[in-house]
Structure formats: structure tokens, C-alpha cells
Protein 1
Amino acid sequence: MSPPMSEQDKTKAAPKAGGRGARFGGAMDEAAAALNSSVEFDKRLLRDDVRGSQAHARMLAAVRLISEDDAKQIVAGLDQVAGEFERGERKMDPALEDVHMNVESRLIELIGDPGRRLHTARSRNDQVATDMRLYALSQATVIVAALDKARVALCRRAREHTATLLPGYTHLQRAQAVTLGHHLLAYAEMLGRDRGRFLDAARRAAECPLGSGALAATSLPIDREKTSADLGFTAPTRNSLDAVSDRDFCAELAFACALLGVHLSRLGEELVLWSTTEFGFVRLGEGHCSGSSLMPQKRNPDIAELMRAKPGRLIGDVVALLTVSKGLALAYNKDLQESQEPFYDAIETTHLVLDVLPRLVAGLEFNPERMKEAAGDPALGATDLAEHLVRDGVPFRKAHEIVGKLVRHAEQLGVSLRDVPEHDLPQIAPELHEAALQVLSASRAVAGRAVFGGPAPAQVMREAQRLASELKGLGYEV
Ligand code: ARG
């Protein structure tokens, strides 16, 4: 369908800013242009924009809307454009509004008319939606891999500490003894679900908007299946109005980032707490601590504190994304441009935090002695003692009463549960006997909680092995 070369426009003049074309006499007002321009942030889409355009050009040639030669020139020209921007040989011009116009106008400068055919059957609206989905998909893949590395680190440390005792807490009060391996695998569980959320969101993002045009598709005989397959999408989007105007995939991924961040903030908080002199359960490796400019003795857990703090902005990103999209009439509105920055911020903040984890976790210096000492208070075995009485046939509510009385009695005597004199026991309750008090040892109590999902060393070992084989199946060494 291309006209012969002789008819082609040989002038290399670039299109006007934002595709204003002949419709406008002059440039946009300076302040208005500053508000309008997205180059500063959408330059992140450069590679995806080029990929999308190359697939679009190949499709246009396949359906004979452009010649094979045009397509070749476009594909090669786009590689050159991307290279120039990436190597910093050319700077993007904010006056050209966005990454899309910067790429296209440089392409036209380089190859002339074939470049002018690229935007056939396409709008920046389906273009930007496609670019953002491509970006979302590749970022989700990187995040899933980073999550897996973090799970490897947790799994290794859990395997080292299947039998290391420490207090488990509710209300941050010592509750029942557990094992460190179990505690670490709790985070592996959270990260495993986060992984699923990224994959799930990516699955829904994997439809190709190209061909939706500005909002109402195109009258030209394009092949949407071809572009979609070429770009690795699972299918073309089913509704042009929806495809150009929804950024739900950004919100979903940002939510997955925020929830992951919330999980990691809990780990951050525990590391802050555990590394205090008061707890003394852990020391962060030197590479993950900061000093004080004033107090020479300080070893500050800044990295753990930032893990705790970063979700603040991740949650803000989700709120920004939802707020920008709410109330928008179909179809495309420029408001949608405002969904880019919070989206990139969520992704980039998540990389920053996730990347620190494998070596942070690997470098944790646990203090099993301190943990064991803290778990050694026989009061932590009160529940296990009540359960022991249940095994002897005592109804649980009654067993709870009996142990409650024992705790009170011990408190009155000022001794630990374990040290209540044997001859006092029948007075407290006839069901109490010295042998039952054996379960007040933390290691016995924990070993007894071997139910599926429980903290007993044998059970933790099974779970750690299961996780290790899952991770090995994904190609990791554990
Ligand atoms: N930078 C724009 C965005 O992110 C690209 C689409 C512009 N479309 C338009 N009709 N002005 O939304």
C-alpha cells in the first residue's frame, strides 16, 4: 500500500509536540507544557514503547498496510532510536510531551516517510496502555524472582534453626515457646502468598490493548492477534473503551507491592526489637547497620527501620492510583497519565527493599542462648500443661481453671510454676501431679506441638524441606 518512493516526503521534519500537527498555529504555553509533559517519568517505558512499535510495524506489514521494506526500516530505526536515548547520545525533549512522541519524532528524523506510517491504526492511548502493561509484566517477573531469593534466604536460616527455642508472643507478651525456624517460615509463607498475588495480577495484565485506537478501535484491517502474540500477551483486550482507560493492573500490582511491604515491615519491626539490648535475640550483620555520628558505641538498625517505613509510601501509591482513576468517565482521560508515577514508585521501592533481603537475612547473627533463656520461663508452658490434663481426661475448661490456680499459687509463693512444692499440688487440684509438670520445659512443650502447621522441630523440618524442594524446582540452590 505504500506509495512509490518518488512520492514520499523526503523532509525529515519531526511532528509537532504532542501530535498537535497542523491543527495548531503555535506551541503550547510554557507553564502548561511543564504540567502536561510526562517525559521525566515515562522515559522508563522507552524499551517497551520500542518493542510495542516494532510489533505493530511487523503487523502492519503482514496485513499490507505498509510495505515489508517500511517495516524493516521502522524496526531498525527504532533500535537505533532506543540506543541513542539509552546511551545518552540524545536527551528526550520535554516539549515533545512524552516518550512516545520523542521516539516517533526521532524515528521520522532518521528514516522519513516509513516512520510517518508507524502510527497507522494506533493512538497514543492504546500505545501507552500497551507499554505500561509490558512494563508491568516484566517488572512482575523481576519482583517474583527477588521474592524467591528472599524465600531461599529464609528457608536456609529456618533449616539451621528448626530446634532453636524462643518465646512466641501475643500482644507482645510472652505466650508459648516456639522455634526460630517456625518464626522465619512464617515470613516465607507471607512472601509465598505475595508471590501468588504478583503472578495473579500479571495474568490479568497480560492482554494487549493495541488496536483499540484512541477509544473506538480502527476501520483499518489490522491483525490484533498477531501483535498480541508477537509481544507475548495471552490475547488482545476485548473492549476498546476499557482497554485504553483502565489502569486496574497498575493498582493491583501496586497493592501487591504494598501488602508485600507491609509483610516486610513486620520483619523490619521484629529486627529492630530483637536487636535491642533489652531483647538481645539478634545482631544485624555489619553491612546492614549504621553508626551514629555522635555516639561511638551505636549500632543502629537503619535498614530494618526503612523496611518498616517504606510501606508508608507504597500504601500512598495505591491510594494515589485508586484516587486518580475514580470517577473517570469512559474512555481515556489525561488524568490517567497521573497513574504512572505512583506505579513506578511502587515498583521501584519494592525492588529497593526486596533486594536487601537475601544478604540481610543471611547475615543475621542470632543469639540462641538469649532466646532459649527467654523461652525458659515455665509459665510459657501453662497452656501445654492444661492440654496435658486434657489427655488425662480433664475437660479443657476445667484444666484451664486448674492451671490458672497453679499460676496464682506460684505467684503467691513467689516461685516459678515449675517450683511449686509437690505436696501443694493436690490442694490446688487432685488432677495435678508432678509428672504433668514435666511439660513445663520449653523443649518438651514445643516438641509436643507437632501438628501440621505447628512449631515442633520435626514439623518445621518437614516444612523447610517442602519449601526447599519448591525452590529447587524453581532452579534455586537451597
Ligand atoms: N502520556 C500520556 C499518558 O500517560 C500518553 C497518552 C496521551 N494521549 C493523549 N490523548 N493525550 O496517558
Note: Residues 38, 42, 98, 124-125, 128, 332, 334, 336-337, 340 surround arginine (CB under 6 Å).
Protein 2
Amino acid sequence: MKKSLWQKDIDKNKYKILNKNVSTDVLIIGGGITGLTTAYNLIGNNHSVVILEADRFLCGATCKSTGKLTYLQDLKYQDIYNVYDFNTAKLYYEAQKDAIKLVKKIIKENNIHCDFSRSDSITYTTKKEEIPKFDKERKMLDKLGVKYYTTYTTTDFKNDDIKDLIMVKNTYVFNPVKYLKGILDVLKKHNNFELYEKSRVCKIKKEADYYIAYANDCEIKTKKIVVSCHYPFFTIPGFIPFKTYIEKSYINATEVSKTKSYNAITSNYPVISFRYHKDNDNCYFIYLNNSSKLCDKLNYKRNYDECLNAAKLITGKTPNYVWTNMDVMTNDFIPLIGKVSDDEKNVFIATGYNTWGMTNGTIAGKILADLVNCKKNKYINVFNPSRNINAKNIKNLISNTLFSNVKAYTFNLIKKNPTWYKNKARVIKSNGKRVGIYIDNEKNNHVVSNICPHLKCFLTFNEVDKTWDCPCHGSRFDIDGNVIKGPSCYNIKIDEPKI
Ligand code: FES
């Protein structure tokens, strides 16, 4: 698996692995920015809190982020306005600003060294036909009272290529892993917090007035549950697979001689997003491209090469780090944060950050902690996961969610043995079942089921990472069938078939 730039800063300390039954007031599933910010906001409330991370702490979605903390998020405000109204767009804007304030406060209160620095944010386009959208976004920003600029001088842009841009100040970048390491250090000092890693929750059962969650063959008895694991592993309640779709992108980081204090993103597909980063030792140029729906662009090797080559063209160097990222997207551009359904008053989720995970994960941590404490929060309604589907986003729901899933399913049904596998991997039928086989350099067969345990999509072989990947909702498995990324929580191991 390729490593992200932040991975070098991951906590060397290992945490306990759950190996006994426990009882707690609050169970937090997922130890990324959402789970840890929720826990941080619960300090001082006297709850007992158990945090379970499926992988190692800080190795999940947060570690794949580009680490931007900005309220200028491509052309987000008009997108939200087009589906809802100005007030909803305003609340979303205020939530992003509050999230940035909260990160600053946490850093200051705990003296966290996480390379936090100011970085102007730019949305730009290289396409003339996008200009009317920029005019509309400027009108939205005027109404929101946001000060913005329409020019920016940098040698990174060829000015002739830029057809329009919006720039705002008072936005930031940071190292998300160092930041969360700081929060983990705070949590470790509190006796009422228990942290476990390599402890994947696979099932939740409701009892009279409590829940039992299961991980590593152990039971966790709890009154309230916060599901903050990027993408919930269950379908009911919440029906998240029917409200979201996944986008995948390729990111790289290249050592450069100096940094610049701005970050940028294009408003149009294919999305390009970049920023600079400086840590104690080096300066980096971080570059994201090839963003697409998970079911599109399934030629992993070609995507990877394109990502490397694009960065090489800009910096003249081969990137030092290359990694992939998956984002959960919603059809109405607003994350799903809050009670998982109206019937489940004590199960809370947070997902669907639409590529803006650092601010949305932070504000989710505040909203979820307030919900656990039965406190008011002005953002509860706007992010409510059970909000009604509005006629204006039905079109998005059909084209994004339904069409993506059908496409992913049928593509793999037809294309069992794509030529890019280069005969290292193939899919066959054995006793009526689809089986994936990878042949390693020593000519050993690694045999797995080709069906994703989550919602039964067919898996594709990822030649770059040597994994079996699900094009529907992003589960991933190693060549021996061990699940390495959810929502599936089950392996795909099987006995070797007779061929
Ligand atoms: Fe949902 Fe595979 S079917 S992740």
C-alpha cells in the first residue's frame, strides 16, 4: 500500500487491542478527526468513554487528507443555495468558520505542534464557461459578508490559463496526524477514556435501554454510540449507501525548496487541488488530481501514473509520497451528522463530508458531543441525516448514487478479466461462485471470493496496491482476503478452488 506524507508522523506507541468485555456510557467507533474531536468535547462531562479504532490510530481517512482548513470550498455556497435556500448556505458557512476556530482553540489550549499555518484559499477555473458560476458565488459571498479577492499573483499560475478566481484570507493548513496525536495525548491523561486499536466493530445489537457492540469477539455494553468511521458498516438504520456515493482521488507530495502561503482548487472536473506544506525538516508541494466517482476510472495503474506524471510536470521531480483518498459525497452537498434515524435516539453518525473532511469532521465532533450530552446546537437541523430528500436533489440522487452503484455492479459483471491485470490476477467461476486469483512473483496462488460482503458488488483487482477493491462503496481487501478498509467488516477468504 502506498503511504501518505502524514504517515511518517503516526504515533509509534501502540494502543491496547480489545480482548475483554467492557461496559461504558459512550462508545465511539472510529479514531479519526471526528471520533477524537467528539471525545475531546466530552472531556469534563464525567462520562466513561471507549474509543475503538479498526486499524491503528490515525491511519484511516484523516491520514489521507490534504490537511486544508478553509471555508472557501470550491463553489459550495451556490450549490447548497440551489438545493435549499440562503439560510442553509449561511449555516453551512458558519459551521466551517466555527470548525476553524475550534481547531485553533484546541491547538492553543494544548500547545499542539502540528505545522498549523495561514494559507490563502483560492478557487479557480481554466474554463470560460465556468465564469457565470464565479459571478454567482461572489454574490453569495457578498450576502454572507465574506471579504474576497479576484486576482492573485503567483508564478504557479500561467495567468492566461486562469479564466476566473476567488481568493479568501484567514484560512489555514496543518498536519492532521500531528494535530490528532496532540488530542490523543490529552485523552490519554483522563481515566474515564479507554482507547483500543485493531478493534473493528462488526455488529450492534439493541437491548432494552442499552446497546451491545461486538469487536474482536468481545462485547461492549453502552448507552450511546457515535459511529465516526468514515462510512458506517451497517445499512439499516440510516440507509447511508442510498444517500451517498464515493469519490476517489490520487494525491502526491514532492519535496521542494520553499513553500508558498496559499492553497488552490479548481471549480470544475477533473478536480485539481494543491497546497504547500512545511514541517521541521522539509517543504512539500501536495497535489491532488484524477478525482472521479469510484465506479469510473477503474484502471488503477493508469490513474497512478497520471498522478505521478502531473506532479513531475509541475515540480520537475518524482514525488516522494503518493497515496489515494476516498471521499463520501452527499447529493445535497451537506454532510450527514447527527441521529442515525428518528427511531434511534442514541446512535449518532457522521459521514459525507464532500471532500472537506477537516472542517466538517471538526464541527461534527462538536455536534455529536452536544447530542450525546442532550445539549442544543444550532447546526443539528441543517446536518440532520434524516432530512427530507428535496425535489431539487432527486436528480443528483439518481445520477450520482443510483447510477454509480448500477454502473459499478454491471461493469464488473461483464468485465471479468480486464487486460490491465496482465495475467497476474483474474476472476473465474468455480462451483458457480465468482473467485478472484492473484498469482505472486513466486507463482503462488492467492484465492479469495470476488464478492464484497457489504452489499455484494463484484471486486476489481488494484494492481498498484495489490488489493481487491470494491467499486461500489470502497471496501478493500488484501490478496489473502483480509479486510483492510470498510464498510465491509468481513474478510473474503475462501479455500482454493479446483480449477
Ligand atoms: Fe458496499 Fe462493497 S458493496 S463496499
Note: The pocket of FE2/S2 (inorganic) cluster is lined by residues 452, 454-455, 457, 470, 472-475, 487-488 (CB under 6 Å).
